[in-house]
Amino acid sequence: MTSVRRGGVLGRLAGDGVAGILSQAATAAASFAVQLVAAGTLSLSDYGVFALLLATLVGANALHVGFVCDGFTVFDRHDAGYRSSLVTGALLVMGLCVLGAVVLASTVSRQGPWLSAVYAVLVVCRLLAETVRRIFVARVDFGALLNNDLCCLAVTLLALAVVPALFGEPNPTVLFGVMCCGALATLLAGLVQLPREERGGLRPGVREFPDVAGFAVWRALQAGLRPLTLLAVRLLVASTISTAAVGVLELARLVVAPVQVLINGSGSLLLGRIAARERSGDERDPAVLGKACRVLVFATVVCGGVLAAAALVLSPRVLGKPLDPVLVLGWVSYQVAWAAGLPYVTELVARRASRRVFRIRFVDSLVGLGLASVVVSTGTAVVVLPSLLALGGVYTVYAARSAVLGQRVRRAEEIGRC
Hints:
single chain, mainly alpha
């Protein structure tokens, strides 16, 4: 009987893991398809503008996930006080993100108000869609999440075929319009699948807002540090060199971007499981986190190496643009450093140690951004930028692992004194 139960639990874990990774794959495939069209049809300068705005969207999404979505994973989202406070936080973050998006789009692009308008709509749709997606993660309902993201992929591919035919040659405005279609499909499909209790009672309030903000501010800053650091590097390259140089950087990142599917899918599953165990009072063995770290690093190295080799051969033929091997392998090393630190960072987040994680990530970002500034200001080739950014990630692995082990030692000492 025990073995049957254990098999059932392991089966559900395996099923959730596969569904979680496949859902990330569907979302990433939708984004990757649009980026691939952009890389193949836009000039390097226009692709650089597209990449800057896309990086801003990723940064806004990270802030929203950190402040709102991770909040209703860690806190009780069905409690009226927490629920209304999370709604308030969502409105504040969304308003600030839309304002920043419009300002940046108006500054970096010469395509006029249409791009700013479409981009603002995309930001709203994307943040709402991500909120719905994260509710499925909090419910540990990865089957529904997969259905939701497959719908997004289908609509995005359909829009990618139809929208350019209606509005002419692809440009950043048209491509962001395609992404709007996919985000809207994600939102609607998610709302249809969610039960009524998840969709009701969405009124703003502030009763528990100080408690939520105490966690969420630090978590949002921590979650946004990495994408915002990359955005800062891109803006630095664009202002110091050119948007075409940003295009070169982004083209190399794009070809190994599918590795992020594996990392993000694993992160979503880890956070949901670890947070559930934290609420139930179960202790975790750091050896399990170490094993997760080794598995993730191995998978990232293998997948990244295969993608890099394939891209270096196929990119000149498919995209008509050559790739620098040092640049591509630098992005692979950046992903490896991210994967190595993910289990330990996720453990700290589940324990609500978001301020500690922020401090670790802040040093990580300072190291990467400082090295990037030196490289760009001295005129050194930008091909070394991803490798330098990876050095900050190495610090995150060391510091986050040390923090997790330190917390376990302190808990053991407290139990021993009792």
